[in-house]
Amino acid sequence: MFSSVQEVSDGLRSAGYIADPVAITTIFLAGSLHRPILSEGPAGSGKTQLAYAVAQAANTSVERLQCYEGIGEDKAIGTFDESLQRLCVELKAKASGVDWELLKNELHGEQFFSAGPLLRALQYERPCVLLIDELDKVDHAFEAMLLELLSVWQLSIPKLGTIQAKSIPFVVLTSNEERRIGDPLRRRSFYLRVEHPTAEREAEIVAMRTPDAVADFHAGMAGLAKALRGWSLEKPPSVSEILDLAQALRILGAEKVTAEMRDTLLPLLAKTEADRRKLLLRDGFASLVYDAQQYAAQSLEGSAV
Q1: Rounded (10°) CA dihedral 214, 218, 221, 222
Q2: H-run or E-run covering 173
Q3: Do 187 and 239 belong together in one domain?
Q4: Are 82 and 223 in a shared domain?
Q5: How far apart, in Å, are the Cα atoms of 266 and each of 239, 247, 260, 292?
Q6: Do 123 and 89 reside in the same domain of the chain?
Q7: Are residues 294 and 205 in the same domain?
Q8: Whether residue 94 sits in one domain with residue 62
Q9: In which domain, by residue range, is 104 found?
């Protein structure tokens, strides 16, 4: 998928994703050795976006399987289209001399199978990125179903047969650590820990999205992100939410966040009633802004070194 570590680095940066050298090397090796990446870390730290950035860097598509409690193989792999099968039987029945055994085999062919993201990922002529998002929401039985795919790059589907991969996808498994992912999947994967970025790195990320703003603005956004995440909120801001906030401030013509902007910014900062009330506490928001300014100053100092 990538010819060198430098190609990965350049491709991710052009996609707007800033990764550290360890992550860049891991992505290169995963693509070269056909190993999945298990990306774990807090919600909103950029795990899902990593898959999209890899796809953009490799000029390919993303097949996404969004996991949830109770998801079954029909959503992940696919299922036979029963209405289409019935229609075919009705049309064939009108003809004379129907070979029912041949028709039975025909009904269980790929043309009557509605593929899910796991099967579609194996059918690309050139590798796609297969994103299996929030794997920690499913049970161990669902994990076990993935082992065949991630070991020998095929899927055994009842009545349809075994489907071999036309190309081996680049697989990203993400987990917010609501449940521990089992050891069989861990052994097959390269483990990549993804935390919220440092203030210096987040300032660089903000700068890529708001290039017309000054360095103080970028550092201020990064400082505010660090302050909010240190405030024990129920829903601390993700990287994408900080980018939304930065763009909102640019639209409003504001160069920085001040204590007086509290009520205006609450809908962007607080995602639960408990967090909204916490930010409304007397002097609470002013204290948050002060902490953000201190972090921003440290970020500017760090980037100047």
Answers
A1: -160
A2: strand 170-175
A3: no
A4: no
A5: 17, 15, 11, 16
A6: no
A7: yes
A8: no
A9: 78-113
Q: How far is residue 197 from each of residues 23, 57, 194, 206, 302, measured CA to CA in Å?
A: 13, 20, 8, 11, 14
Beta carbons within 10 angstroms of residue 240's beta carbon: 14
Nearest to 30, CA basis, from 58, 1, 50:
1
Q: Are residues 266 and 153 in the same domain?
A: no
Cβ 170 vs Cβ 31: under 8 Å: yes
Residues 180 and 212 in one domain: no
Tell me how many domains the chain contains.
3
Model pTM score: 0.84
Specify the 3-state DSSP secondary structure of 154.
strand
Helix (H) or strand (E) holding 240: helix 239-252
Residue 241: burial class (beta carbons within 10 Å; 0-12, 13-18, 19+):
middle
pLDDT in tens, the chain (305 residues): 899 999 999 999 999 899 999 999 999 999 999 999 999 999 989 999 999 999 999 999 999 999 999 998 999 999 888 788 788 777 777 766 677 667 777 777 788 888 999 999 999 999 999 999 999 999 999 999 999 999 999 999 988 889 999 999 999 999 999 999 999 999 999 999 999 998 999 999 999 989 999 999 999 999 999 999 998 899 999 999 999 999 999 999 999 999 999 999 999 999 999 999 988 887 778 889 999 999 998 878 776 65
Within a 10 A sphere around the Cβ of 256, how many other Cβ atoms? 17
Whether 48 and 99 map to the same domain: the answer is: no
Element spanning 73, H or E: helix 73-76
Q: How many alpha carbons lie under 13 Å from residue 216 in its C-beta half-sphere? A: 5
